[in-house]
Amino acid sequence: QKMTDKGNIKMEFAVQVLGDDFADAIRNTLADTENVEIDVKKGSVLVETSLPWLEIHRRIEATGRRAVLTGFGGQSAVAMVDHGNEKTNVRGVVRFCSSSASGRGAVVDGTIDGLAKEEKYLLNVHECGDISEGCASVGDVYDSVEVSSDSNGKATIRFVNDRLEVTDLIGRSVVIAESKNDHRRLSCGIIARAAGIFENYKKICACDGVTIWDERNKSIASEERQRESNQSVL
Fold first, then answer.
1. pTM (2 decimals)?
2. C-beta separation of 85 from 198 below 8 A
3. pLDDT digits 0-9 by tens, 187-223
4. 23 CB contacts (<8 Å, ≥6 apart)?
C-alpha cells in the first residue's frame, strides 16, 4: 500500500504569549489532538497530531495569537515549490518527516496554491534537484501521488507514503504537474533538510535580520499582494 493513514507527527510552534488564559486557550483550540505540551515561558507549543500543520496553525491563530512553525517531526525535509512557475503562478510548501508511530515511510504534509478549482494533479518526487532549467532539468519521476484541489484552487496534502524515506529524499525535487496534458510541469522546488522539533533556536531570520514575527508578517503581506494581483487579472 503506497498511501496509508495520516500518521501522527510532532510539530513545534512559537506562539505569542498573550493574556492570562494563554495555556487554556491553546489547549481548548487543540482539544482533539493527540497531545499538547505548552511552555508559557518560552512561548512554545508542541503538538502531536495527524492533522495538517496548516490546520494547527490556523487554530492557534484563531485564538488571536500569532504563530510560527519552528519544528516539524524528527528527521525532516521541506521543498519550497516556487520555481519554474512564471506562467502558472502555482506555488506552495511540501514537508516530509518520519512517522512518530512506526518510523517507517514518510509523512507528506503541505499546501499548494494557484491551481484550477476542483481538479486532479500529480505530486511528483523527481530524481534530482537540478532546477537550473526550471522544472525541465529535475530528472525522471522517482515517486508520484495524485492530489486534488478544492473550490479555492488549493490542494491540502497530508498522507503517509510508506515507499519514501526522508533521508533518501534530500537533494531530490518536488514537482506539481497536471494529471493530463502530458503531465505538464507547473511548479517545482528542491527538497532540503529542515529543522525537526527542538532543532530551531532561531529568533532572528538569517536572511535579513528581522524577527520571526516580522518575517511572518512579510510572508502574509506578500501572499495578500499576490492574491490581489491574481484577482486583478481575472
1. 0.75
2. no
3. 999 999 986 665 554 443 434 434 444 545 544 444 4
4. 38, 40
Helix (H) or strand (E) holding 76: strand 76-81
Q: Where are the domains of the chain?
A: 9-72, 76-194
Task: Out of 3.10.20.310, 3.30.70.100, 3.40.50.10950, 3.90.550.10, select the CATH number for domain 9-72.
Answer: 3.30.70.100
| Long-range CB contact pairs, 24-32, < 8 A, 24+ | 25/63, 25/65, 26/60, 26/63, 26/65, 29/59, 29/60, 29/62, 29/63, 30/56, 30/59, 30/60
Strand partners, 185: 177
Model confidence at 72, pLDDT cuts 50, 70, 90, reads: confident
Q: Helices in 149-192 by DSSP H: which ranges? A: 166-169
- Contact criterion met (CB below 8 Å) for 38 and 70: no
76-194 CATH pick, 2.60.40.200, 3.10.310.30, 3.30.470.20, 3.65.10.10? 2.60.40.200
